[in-house]
Amino acid sequence: MRALVTGATGFVGPRLLRMLDRPVVLTRNPERARSSIGHLAGRLVAWDPLQGPPPATAFEGIDVVFHLAGESVAGARWSAAQKRRIRDSRVIGTRHLVQGIAQSTVRPATLVSASAVGYYGNRGDEELTESAGPGGDFLAEVCEAWEQEALAARGLGVRVVTARTGIVLGSGGGALERMLLPFKLGAGGPLGNGKQWMPWIHVTDLARLYHHAATTVGIDGPMNAVAPEPVRNSEVTRALARQLHRPAFLPAPYFGLRLAFGEFAKVLFDSQRVIPRVALESGFVFQYPDITKAFAEILTTAAA
Question: Could you tell me which of 17, 74, 130, 252 has the fewest CB atoms within 10 Å of its CB?
Answer without folding.
Answer: 74
